[in-house]
Amino acid sequence: MNLTRKRCGVAAAALLALAGCDKPGPLSAAAKGTYPAPPAAPAWAASLAGRPLREAFPNTIQCLGFVDGTSDRYRRARKAYGWAWNRTSAQPIARVAVVDADGRMIAFGEGGIPRQDVVQARPEVRTPTSGWSAVAPIGKTSTIFGLDAATRAACSLGAVTP
Questions:
Q1: Which terminus of the chain is less hemmed in, N or C, by CB atoms within 10 Å?
Q2: Range of the domain at 101
Q3: 38 in a domain, yes or no?
Q4: pLDDT per residue over 100-110, tens digit each?
Q5: Within 10 Å of residue 155's Cβ, how many Cβ atoms?
């Protein structure tokens, strides 16, 4: 029993030593408040920021899609990601908008991200570039919409919650 305790103590000391040599993890940024600034919105979105979604995209398209989750943290924002397929044009969604509770577009993102898993799970999706990502504000429930600029149409892909 004494030998087992000694081994546990040595193992714990080794883990502490390794932890001290490691680069700062994502939680250290939270503790210090040093998240990076979010990336800039795509150039195509400049004239859309703050506008009501239904004013700029009054039509509706049929789409498949999903908000898979969130990842990277930024100052007052996080990256949301998922996949989307425009059933009307049989193409992946190329542009997405983050819409607040008032229906205004507050952030944007783009598609074209490889998602082979979607092609395997959904036979209707015929190209592996159905993935998208966008930066969404923290602390607000936002809805992600796929956009079709050619037809001025949009479809809901899901929500990002605080």
A1: N
A2: 43-160
A3: no
A4: 999 999 999 99
A5: 23
